[in-house]
Amino acid sequence: RPIYLQLIEYIKLEIISGRLKQGERLPSVRDYAMKVKVNPNTIQKALSELEVEELLFTEDFIDYNIKKRDA
Question: What does the alpha-carbon distance between residue 1 and residue 67 come to, in Å, rounded to a whole number?
Answer without folding.
Answer: 26
